[in-house]
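Give me structure tokens for this 322-residue protein.
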Amino acid sequence: MCGIIYAKNLVDNNPVNNLVKILYQNQKERGQQGFGFVGLNNEQISTYRATDEKGIIKYLNEYHYDEIIFHHRLPTSTENTLKSTHPFVVEIADKKYYFMHNGIIQNADKLKEKHSKKGIVYASLALEQSEGKEWASFNDSEALAWEFCLWLLNKKKKIEAEGSVAFVCLETNKKTHRALKLYFYRNDGAPLKIYKDKTLFLLSSEGSYAEAKKNWLYFWDYQKRHIRRYKFLEIQNPKVFSFNKYDYSFFDNGVDDPNSEFDLLAMKDEIMVLEQERDYLLCVGKYVEAEAIDDEIEDLKEQLKEAKKLLNAQSLDNLLME
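Here you go.
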């Protein structure tokens, strides 16, 4: 399980960074070990990767874009390293593709073997050691990335990948660095939500908006500025149980002690998310909604202040009793 987020401002050059951070907060339980995003602005394309949340949020705060493709990872095939984070970049002829995937490819080993015979070397390939033995590991999503790009350029008749699939893939001109198409797809094994109005175009793994239609490949046409259905595409999902090779932790807002330090941290997180949402609403001119959220932030800050006082008092009582 991983998370995908895509946000594009359809009106002006105002950044979507805060919006991406809000969407991430809503689905961060889908993965917090390995992050990456592609930022687009004024025909410039930049890629950022980080192994932890703090690192990727730093990039989102420093570099602003009016279009962002974001991925957060829960490791299932390779450990949490920069080499295994998305996007995976595939270069073929005059095209360059930035690929992000949510799901598990169950026949990735066979695909890698076939790709290796064609001279393809995976960027995520790494050597690992355990009990004195050494073996090669790679990210299964990169196998799907190559399958899709080879198929898209008619170098394969069909995509042989099998498993749960939701992906977003940006196609660019390698020489001019201009974005050409943004492909997106899901089969019945992975979610991908879609929202579009006159101001925003969004894709995400979670959300209250509509699910993208399964087994159809769509793309955003940058020249004509609208979504187009490309063709029917069925990537098989064999329903075979898959397991994770790597341990990971889930994000949990729940706490047993309402006056614990963990609860204070949860309140701080909630305030941060609300502040990001307020700032975004201010950016797009929704001042009434922003003011309502600002009132909620002030209430939470007062609660946080009282909770700190109570926690400090309890700590003092405990010291006096010892």
